[in-house]
Write a structure and sequence with these properties.
By secondary structure, the chain is mostly helical. The protein has one domain. It is 74% helix and 0% strand. The protein contains six helices and no strands. Helix 2 crosses helix 3 and helix 2 crosses helix 5.
Length: 138
């Protein structure tokens, strides 16, 4: 069973979870490519776990929201700058004219839109609210 077919299962009453599953269904390949480019194998495995957890969940839990924020932070290069982090060396090796860089930017924008939609669905969730506020205030 493919990841995408698992994500298409009925999400129940949690509209934010449905939106998240739709997002991963539409952008799954691009997300995994971006995560691998920017974060390497460990980030790729973490993203695959996120896929699996989203597919198996009945609600979009706080831990899943934390993982979505981590994913967004990775795509927004928040972890770049510390010379000890793999993300920094991976970013330094990028050719900014490579078409995959544009794909990373597009996926990051789509993920931000998803976080805004989640914040609207779950207004009491400080995890997502903080992320969307920090970026919209920038």
């Amino acid at each position: 069973m493919s990841i995408q077919s698992v994500l298409l299962r009925t999400a129940g009453n949690d509209h934010a979870l449905e939106l998240t599953r739709d997002f991963f269904h539409e952008c799954g390949v691009a997300i995994l490519n971006a995560v691998t480019i920017l974060g390497g194998p460990a980030a790729h495995r973490r993203c695959l776990r996120l896929y699996s957890n989203i597919a198996e969940s009945a609600v979009l839990s706080k831990s899943l929201k934390h993982e979505l924020v981590w994913l967004h932070r990775l795509l927004m290069l928040d972890f770049v700058g510390d010379p000890e982090r793999e993300e920094t060396s991976r970013f330094m090796a990028l050719d900014l004219l490579d078409p995959s860089v544009e794909e990373v930017c597009l996926v990051a924008d789509r993920l931000f839109d998803l976080l805004v939609a989640i914040a609207e669905e779950h207004p009491a969730c400080d995890v997502v609210q903080r992320e969307t506020f920090d970026l919209s205030a920038a």
